[in-house]
Write a structure and sequence with these properties.
Number of helices: 29
Distance between the termini: 83 Å
Strand content: 5-15%
Strand order of the largest sheet: 8-21-20-19-9-16-18-17
Low-confidence stretches: 1-22, 219-227, 453-461
Shape: elongated
Mean pLDDT: 81
Number of strands: 21
Oligomer: single chain
């Protein structure tokens, strides 16, 4: 009786059924494994496969990253300065900063908790031999010296040595080399590589942090977080440059107010703090973190696991989606539809019954446990086909390069696999028989007898005699057609990349409604990278593709400036998934593929993809829109600081007034608008889009407030009146930009606008002293009204000017003209 934690998969059941008796190795020696006592001893010594090297933040790291930030240090210094001068009402920014920090920590912890639960469900498992019994446990629960059973699709979870059996492994994730390496008894296995074919017993030598993959991960982690998404990268750049600028600007403004303008120490500090506060985008990073965290949680409820939150943005920008046929377009399982005797079969005694017995013998001894062989074994078991009495000599597992497997019995040598690869130059002899099924979307395998022993050779040597065909089918997913129709409407090109016959894949793709599915090519005819580069433009369907070619197809698309997503469920997809901008795995596939992917569809439903793209677009579009609100304040404060320095005036606003404007024209509307459903396609550069929306309002703010200050000085108006009027003027322009970015309006957007107007009026009328809102003179009020009307026209015309400018420079012909003129007048040329 096997002690297991959950039901075995088909491949594991096969292995257990054929090897369960005393857990014998290939030499007939019982493998007992560690005893329960030995396992406990190793756990007590910390010799487990648990690793503390993770790409996800710990609770402590989340708290630290939100609490101990550069800007929080700046806020602390500003708080101390305001307390020293006794300007306590200008500490109104503190609740917002504390709230930002608490919300950021809460949402990240909430997202982490959700992801941890899902990751636990999707964690890699291993079959281990302990106390003479086979158990299935999480790979983290393994200990040093454990004996595990490895088979195709498994990722090697710790450094090990092969005890018995043989497997082919791919170490591309570690070495970059995609060749399949044969490993036999005594050979070393590196963690992080994955099993392509075969089965073996292996003893774990180095586990946990001592394993090869853990050391590589530690090195990668020490080098930094790696490539960021476009949105995060630009936000980080903005935060970095603002952090550099605020220190010298703050010092200049303080010195000017205190030394040159003769202001009091308190007034100088307050004006400097107001300018610095205005330049800090304190809510932008929080907005991004919260939006990504909430999106991660929403996707988790749809059975979508994100290994990397930033992949949401990449998915939203994808314009080419590469998919495998099996498990993506079709259901993951395969089934044998029928057995057909070849018209070229030279054995007069071979009929369907004899063919079925031969297939039973073949499937019983071959080490392969891929989807195809599982379907054949299921067919044999379902039809209760008994094995014959053939005596085994040797086996050659299926490989992605050969596209066939081979078994040598005393009675003869037999091959099973892709007809083109087995028959080679003689394929035309049987092509008509096969095409009848391929034209209907079936997958056809050839069983043939080899006239001479070709075990170990790269290609069969000749003397091939066809016996019969195994006709397999994959049902098309119910939602496949609607899913691909959606991507077509969204301008996302589909490339079907499969190891199957191109004609078969093309027919399946047609039935799934993929545009251009009739344009297919046999990848075995693409001899060079140049051929592949040319083919990605011409063809939609690629058949007979090797894992290395899948990777080259992805790279070719990326060189053409496409954002590429790769979906897959098998070990043959991992190389391409690794290089794609975004990788999506089906949980029903191999554990290696699921662990290598950025996104995992836990229910293996490809129909989830439109929702994932919707979610990504909502996050990026809404953050982009809300970021423009934050940038308006930053542009105004920076330019106003420069204006104040040039014209030798004291910065006109107080920190509490900046806080009031930030709350109701930036922070609150920004967060509310970020929650709105938004499925528009993402276009253009993130920072350029944000700047184009923010620049007109920022310039309008500085010009109108600057003019108000100058006029106030001309009319000798009190600085308090000017500050209050300037605050009201900023509010007017703030609501203009909210209206501008909210088009087209709906009930939610009207509600957001109304809530913020009411909130601002309430604070101005009932909390005026707290936010330094004073009663103003008639002349000051009149100036404010005049400049408010002027600001509306100014904002409208500046917006039109910026849009025209953007359109001009966005035209490729105009850009070429400008480049030519620059080269023409380059004096260094």
């Amino acid at each position: 009786m096997h002690n297991i934690c959950r039901p075995y998969t088909q491949e594991e059941v096969f292995y257990l059924d054929t090897n369960s008796e005393n857990n014998l190795d290939t030499r007939g020696v019982p493998i007992i494994g560690l005893t329960s006592e030995e396992v406990r001893e190793r756990i007590d010594k910390g010799l487990t496969n648990h690793t503390d090297i993770s790409t996800q933040k710990t609770v402590g790291q989340i708290v630290k990253s939100n609490l101990l930030t550069y800007f929080n240090l700046i806020f602390l210094i500003l708080t101390v300065l305001l307390c020293i001068v006794g300007s306590f009402r200008n500490l109104t920014f503190l609740p917002v900063i504390i709230g930002n920090t608490v919300i950021g920590i809460f949402q990240e912890l909430r997202a982490k908790k959700t992801l941890d639960k899902m990751s636990m469900l999707n964690a890699p498992h291993s079959i281990v031999v302990r106390d003479g019994e086979q158990q299935k446990i999480q790979s983290e629960e393994l200990v040093k010296d454990d004996i595990i059973i490895l088979s195709a699709g498994n990722q090697i979870c710790a450094d090990a040595t092969v005890l018995s059996g043989s497997i082919s492994v791919n170490e591309a994730l570690l070495t970059g080399e995609s060749d399949e390496i044969k490993k036999k008894s005594g050979d070393r296995l590196m963690s992080g590589s994955f099993v392509v074919s075969g089965q073996c017993y292996a003893k774990l030598d180095k586990v946990g942090n001592e394993s090869y993959i853990s050391q590589l991960t530690a090195q990668a982690k020490a080098m930094g977080d790696g490539e960021q998404s476009e949105m995060i990268r630009y936000i980080n750049k903005l935060v970095k440059w603002v952090g550099i600028i605020i220190i010298p600007v703050g010092i200049i403004l303080f010195c000017q107010a205190y030394i040159m303008n003769g202001e009091t120490f308190k007034k100088s500090v307050v004006s400097m703090v107001a300018a610095v506060l205005g330049m800090i985008p304190e809510g932008l990073y929080l907005l991004t973190t919260v939006a990504l965290a909430l999106s991660t949680i929403r996707l988790a409820k749809k059975q979508v696991l994100l290994h990397d939150m930033k992949s949401i943005e990449t998915l939203a920008r994808v314009d080419v989606l590469c998919v495998d046929k099996t498990g993506t377009i079709t259901e993951p399982g395969m089934q044998v539809t029928e057995l057909v005797i070849s018209g070229r079969c030279g054995d007069a005694e071979m009929d369907k019954r004899a063919f079925a017995h031969l297939l039973a013998d073949y499937s019983a001894v071959i080490e392969d446990n891929n989807a195809t062989m599982e379907a054949i074994r299921a067919y044999v078991a379902k039809n209760e086909i008994e094995k014959g009495s053939r005596t085994l000599l040797k086996t050659q597992p299926f490989t992605s390069a050969n596209k066939y497997s081979k078994v040598s019995f005393v009675e003869g040598d037999y091959m099973l696999g892709a007809p083109e690869f087995i028959m080679k130059d003689r394929y035309e002899e049987i092509s008509e028989e096969i095409e009848e099924y391929q034209s209907k979307g079936y997958r056809v395998l050839l069983m043939a007898e080899s006239g001479e022993d070709s075990i170990g050779s790269v290609r069969p040597l000749g003397g091939i005699s066809p016996i019969g065909y195994i006709v397999l089918s994959n049902p098309i997913r119910e939602n496949a057609e609607s899913t691909f129709t959606y991507f077509k409407e969204q301008g996302v090109a589909i490339k079907v990349i499969s190891g199957d016959n191109p004609a078969t894949v093309s027919e399946v793709a047609k039935r799934a409604g993929i545009d251009g599915a009739e344009n297919y090519v046999d990848a075995s005819t693409l001899a060079s990278e140049k051929d592949i580069t040319e083919a990605v433009d011409k063809y939609t369907v690629f058949g007979r593709v090797t894992p290395k070619q899948k990777q080259l197809i992805v790279r070719a698309l990326q060189k053409q400036k496409h954002t590429v997503a790769m979906t897959g469920d098998g070990v043959n997809d991992i190389l391409a998934m690794k290089d794609a901008d975004c990788s999506i795995a089906m949980a029903s596939g191999s554990e290696a593929a699921a662990q290598a992917a950025q996104t995992v569809l836990l229910d293996s439903d490809f129909g989830r993809m439109p929702y994932v793209v919707f979610e990504g677009r909502q996050v990026v579009n809404n953050i982009q829109r809300s970021a423009s609100l934050f940038l308006v304040k930053n542009i105004f404060s920076l330019l106003m600081a420069i204006f104040s320095a040039i014209f030798a005036i004291t910065y006109p606003l107080e920190p509490s007034q900046i806080s009031l404007i930030s709350m109701f024209t930036i922070g609150l509307p920004g967060f509310l608008l970020a929650l709105e459903p938004n499925r528009n396609r993402i276009e253009g550069n993130f920072m350029v889009n944000v700047m184009l929306k923010a620049l007109p309002a920022g310039l309008t703010d500085v010009l109108s407030v600057g003019a108000l200050v100058i006029c106030g000085q001309v009319f000798n108006l009190p600085s308090e009146d000017i500050a209050t009027a300037g605050t009201m003027l900023l509010a007017v322009v703030g609501f203009m930009i909210i209206i501008k970015i909210s088009h087209p309006f709906n009930k939610m957007k009207y509600g957001v606008l109304l809530i913020n107007i009411i909130g601002l009026l309430f604070c101005g009328l009932f909390l005026g002293r707290l936010f330094a809102i004073e009663s103003i003179s008639n002349i000051c009020f009149l100036l404010m009204v005049v400049f408010a009307f002027a600001a509306e026209s100014m904002f409208r015309y500046l917006t039109l000017f910026v849009e025209k400018l953007s359109s001009f420079f966005g035209d490729e012909k105009n850009r070429r003209k400008i480049r030519r003129k620059i080269r023409k007048y380059n004096i260094f040329k």
